[in-house]
Design brief:
The protein is mostly beta strands. The protein has a single domain, classed as Hexapeptide repeat proteins (UDP N-Acetylglucosamine Acyltransferase, domain 1, 3 Solenoid). The protein contains no helices and 22 strands. The termini are far apart.
Length: about 160
């Protein structure tokens, strides 16, 4: 496996096929694998793992100790707090009503994946949705509304099926 660069001061690994904008901020101990794209102004915390083919849009904010698995799509406007897990193929959308030749004004809008939340493989998370601390979203779910802390949610649309505490 080749590498694009290792920053010895920050112990950052970036695979040679990854495209990382110069203005992106990457924290110490983070690993960025093959074919990842990281956009302008993105902020990625310490000790994160960004899996093969993941896309991190411009100005996305990702906390510390976050695992983003293969082919996940993280779009502009999302804030992912510390210790989160994002399964492969998950998509965080940034436009509930996409239209050709129309760009949504995202100024002042943000949505969060709160500390310790886990998103299963192949989930779709709509924009303007917050997922509570330590909440688990089951694989294949479609999250259309905010979810509270400490629950398990599954389905389309995702609904609480169990409390965690």
């Amino acid at each position: 496996m080749g590498e694009k660069r290792i920053n010895c001061l920050k112990n950052i690994f970036i695979h040679k096929t990854a495209l990382v904008d110069k203005s992106a901020s990457i924290g110490e101990g983070t690993k960025i694998w093959a074919f990842v794209q990281i956009g302008r102004g993105a902020k990625i915390g310490k000790n994160c793992v960004i899996g093969n083919g993941a896309y991190i849009d411009r100005d996305a904010i990702i906390g510390n100790n976050v695992k983003i698995h293969n082919k996940a799509l993280i779009y502009r406007g999302i804030i992912i707090e510390d210790n989160c897990f994002i399964g492969p193929g998950t998509c965080f959308t940034n436009d509930k009503f996409p239209k050709n030749n129309t760009t949504r004004n995202l100024k002042g809008i943000s949505w969060r994946l709160k500390k310790g939340a886990c998103i299963g493989a192949n989930c779709t998370i709509l924009s303007d949705v917050n997922i509570g601390e330590n909440t688990l979203v089951g694989a294949g779910s479609v999250v259309t509304k905010s979810l509270p802390a400490n629950i398990i949610a599954c389905g389309n649309p995702a609904k609480k099926i169990k409390n965690l505490k």
